[in-house]
Amino acid sequence: MSRIVFCEDDEMIRKLIQAALRTTAHKVRFAENGASGLELIAADPPDVVFTDVSMPEMDGFQLADALKARPDLAHIPIVFMTASVQRDQIEECFRHGAAGHVAKPFTTAELRARVAQFAKS
Questions:
Q1: What is the largest CA-CA distance in the chain?
Q2: 103: domain CATH number?
Q3: CA-closest candidate to residue 54, choices 63, 66, 42
Q4: Is the residue at 65 inside a domain?
C-alpha cells in the first residue's frame, strides 16, 4: 500500500480522484493548494505526490521546487496533472523534476494506471 498526496484545488476533481481510488489499498490524502500540500508532505512524507500545476497560493511548480530543495523530501516522485497538453507546458513539468504527467481531463482507468505506475503495491 502506498501513501499518496494529491494537491488539487478543484473540489470536483478531488471527488473524482477519491472515487477512482476508493477500491484500491492506497492511503490517499488531499491538499487544496501547494502550500497546504507542502505542510502535509513534510509532516508525513508520502510515497508519491500528484499535483495540479495551476493552484492558488503555491502552484505545482513551486511545490515541486520546494520539495526538491529539501534533502528529506527530494526523493519523492512528483506527477504533474494539467489540462495543458502543449509541449512547452509538459517540458516545464519535467524541468521542475516531474517523474510523470497526467493530462486532464482523465478517466478513472487513466488515473489508476498512472497511480499503479508510480505507487507501491
A1: 35
A2: 3.40.50.2300
A3: 63
A4: yes
